[in-house]
Design goal:
- The protein is of the alpha+beta class.
- Helix content is 49%, strand content 13%.
- The strands form 2 sheets. An 8-stranded antiparallel beta sheet has the order 6-5-4-3-7-8-9-10.
- Helix 7 packs across helix 11.
Length: 465
């Protein structure tokens, strides 16, 4: 992207030097402008809802203290898991036992029951591990409390279901383009000087607003790129394509084999072989003991097998760096570990995806991660507001030709791109349309409409006498 200079004949012998923007620069400016105007509302919603989500650990601790914190707070040794499961079952007779998270520190033990009418959600009974007293029951979604689930749905789909996920994927698909485009435009305008500092000496107006908008965006750029990439990995369409890439390179999280030898005649294997209540609660103590002997000493979740003659799964659930996500499959009948999958052995793409998701959710680095995400959200909100303010400040204010907002950059300028750039760009746009449909398809539509409108306007100008 360059700016060319050419001499234009002026009055007398003096020439006037005119700076003319290249087609690349004009296209980037127009893309950044329209993406900012049209996509920024979606980004603003994502930033506000994401900001709310960053405080969910504190909300959980405040709203659900009675359920999450054990009254005995580790005053004595924990009761056997079998006794805690029995207490939970007495308080919650319905449903099938599906998982147990033994309480550690001052946390209650979570006994999870599945019921068909709940769909993906479950009932989690919270038991004081020291006394066996049930402290309450919550309806959870993959372990998330009701308020965290509500805020998660608000951020992902605005509580509109599958249709609402278009908003979040559109925002994530364009965020990286807007961020990178802004960096390039600011570098080009400032010529590499004072990139990170706003022009405090500038008078109030578009110049000062632009400097705050651009300098702040530059500080946020790396974080926004990470948020965009990690958000896309589990989006509806781009996420599906990312899964296809993992399939191609066999880079998924490894499956954990849980099959065990057939049980002896008349024996019982301790698995979920029948209706609610068929699981032997004592198996949980055996499984947890064996898992601890094999290094599973952090927070874990014990998952009850759905079929008979299958091992229980013990999975690490510590998502804080350096993470404890190893898994073992334990046969409660023989106390044998029948399979193991350590996080260190996962394919690199799978590891990066998992860590990226946890960072995006504010879990990977604890409170520091929350603060960083909150700062990114607040910064993005400011950048968007400053962007719209620039649009307002650039409006013509002459009495004879007033305007509500500033004029957009010139249309159809990308048609002036060199032939090689068009030849390379067309397949790139099609590729992006496949990989990131909510970026590629709107981009193709924008280029088409921009070319048609720009061409028609140029013809009208040329036809004027």
């Amino acid at each position: 992207m360059t700016i060319t200079e050419e001499a234009v004949p002026g009055a007398g012998t003096r020439d006037i030097t005119v700076r003319r923007q290249s087609a690349f620069g004009a296209l980037l400016l127009r893309l950044h402008f329209y993406a900012g105007v049209l996509v920024a509302p979606f980004l603003l919603v994502a930033a506000v809802t994401g900001l709310l989500y960053t405080i969910t650990p504190q909300l959980d601790a405040s709203l659900y203290r009675d359920q999450l914190t054990a009254a005995s707070a580790g005053d004595g040794p924990a009761l056997p898991l079998a006794d805690q499961i029995a207490a939970a079952r007495a308080a919650h007779p319905a449903g099938t036992l599906s998982a147990v998270q033994p309480g550690t520190g001052d946390a209650t033990t979570r006994v999870v029951f599945s019921q068909p009418e709940l769909g993906e959600k479950q009932h989690t009974v919270h038991v004081d591990p020291g006394t066996g007293r049930v402290q309450g029951t919550l309806t959870t979604w993959y372990g998330s409390t009701p308020v965290t689930t509500w805020l998660d749905d608000l951020h992902r789909n605005l509580h509109l279901g599958a249709a609402g996920r278009f908003y979040s994927e559109l925002a994530a698909s364009w965020l990286w383009v807007i961020a990178l485009g802004g960096v390039v435009l600011w570098w080009r305008r400032s010529r590499g000087r004072r990139l990170l500092v706003p022009e405090l000496s500038a008078k109030k107006g578009v110049r000062r607003t632009r400097s705050w908008h651009a300098a702040t965006g530059l500080w946020l750029a790396v974080g926004l790129l990470i948020l965009s990439a990690t958000g896309l990995t589990w989006s509806r369409y781009a996420g599906g394509n990312f899964t296809a890439v993992l399939d191609t390179f066999d880079a998924h999280q490894p499956e954990l084999a849980t099959a065990v030898a057939a049980e002896p005649a008349g024996g019982h294997h301790g698995g979920a072989a029948g209706p609610a209540g068929a699981v032997d609660p004592a198996a949980a103590d055996t499984v947890w003991s064996v898992a601890r002997q094999h290094g599973m000493t952090g927070p874990v979740e014990l998952t009850v097998p759905e079929e008979a003659n299958a091992a229980w799964t013990v999975a690490g659930i510590d998502n804080t760096w350096p993470v404890g996500l190893d898994r073992v499959a334990v046969d409660p009948q023989t106390s044998a570990v029948v399979a193991r999958s350590d996080f260190a052995d996962w394919p690199v793409l799978s590891q990066l995806s998992k860590l990226g998701v946890q960072a995006h959710m504010g879990k990977l680095f604890g409170v520091f991660n929350q603060v960083l995400l909150a700062a990114l959200a607040v910064g993005l909100i400011c950048v968007i507001v400053w962007g719209y303010r620039m649009w307002w400040q650039r409006r013509p204010t002459r009495a004879e030709r007033p305007a509500v907002v500033g004029a957009p950059p010139a249309r159809g300028t990308w048609l002036g791109l060199p032939a090689w750039a068009v030849a390379v760009g067309v397949p790139v746009v099609f590729a992006l349309g496949w990989a990131l449909p909510l970026f590629g398809v709107p981009l193709a539509g924008f280029l088409l409409v921009d070319a048609i409108v720009g061409g028609l306007r140029a013809r009208r100008v040329a036809a004027r006498p």
